Amino acid sequence: MQRHRFFRRTAVTSLTLLAGLGLLAACTAPDSSSSPEATSGNGDGDIRIAFVSQVEGIPYFSGFKAGADKAAEEFGVSYTQSGPAKADSAEQKRIVDGLVAQGFDGIAISPLDPTSMDGSIAAASSAGLAVITSDADAPNSERTVFVSQASDEELGQTAMDQIAEQSDGRGQYAIVSGAADVATFNSWSQAAIDHQLAEYPDMELVGGIRHTADSAEALREAQDLLTAYPDLVGIIAVPSTAVPGVAQAVQNAGKAGDVAVTGFGSPKTVAPFIASGVMESSVLWNVEDLGYLTVWALAQVIEGNEFAAENDVPGLKDPVRYDEATQTLLLGEPTVFTKENVDDFDF
After folding, report:
1. If you compute the radius of gyration of the chain from its CA atoms, what whole number of angstroms results?
2. Residue 38 counted as domain residue
3. Strands 40-42 and 77-82
4. How many domains does the chain have?
5. What is the mean pLDDT of residues 193-206?
6. What's the longest Cα–Cα distance across the chain?
7. Which helix (H) or strand (E) covers residue 303, if one does?
8. Together in a domain, 259 and 156
9. Closest C-alpha among 335, 339, 308 to residue 324
10. What confidence tens digit (pLDDT) does each residue in 235-287 have?
């Protein structure tokens, strides 16, 4: 396979060197055929990079790895991916610290919360590693760049649009989110609410934002919302952990088609619910492309390359924008998965 050199530029504005400045607990039940905490890798290059996910052994981060493995092969780097078996910040930190001690050239992290990795990121930087975040950010850490899937505003707005379109833009809706301290979830939820207030004045958020840790809690919260608000027209399930629980609650209540369900679920997570008619859509992004972009971006930092305002990445269809103010690479716009395209994706 032909290996590309790392960096091609579209000169739009002056370049700056990267210096100093993480999402979705996008998980369903781990795949029983995998070993979630085991480290796995690909590529045979001299540059050794690692990625630490929020949860290993699930479709979302398996899809991420597929894209990252492809990039590692094409760009000639050695890639390793590891992560905790369940959402556990302390275990994630232990894995990061262990990888730092193994002499990698660079590490990318999807932090479970915005601050839990700050110390480990500082230690890795002090040890000479290039450190970036991807999928979720640690904005106040010493990470060099954040590889973002799409803007928080666009993601929240798109989810709200899906609920509004399916309910004719009127009625009560609810939000079932993940852990209360995950900044990404909070940003998506707030963006959805702000968009509703601005564009759909005949809709009303009820029940506050329900915070959950897994699908079982999401099921219980959705059941409570359906009971407390019998006129509910829609529910946004923010993390993929919440999507199956919310969809199952609507199905159990016999309200498929009456209560719209959308959220940030991977295609494999939502496909059965779309097939059964409980869901019409899910909002996310192409996670394989996110993994691919992450490997490319980390390689740029290790090589000392600079990012332009727009970057042509070999292997990706569209230019990747770089925001200098926030030191963020943006993969692109959200993807809406429906019955027409949900089976086209393998994550």
Report:
1. 20
2. no
3. antiparallel
4. 2
5. 99
6. 60
7. helix 287-303
8. yes
9. 308
10. 999 998 899 999 999 999 999 999 999 999 999 999 999 999 999 999 999 99
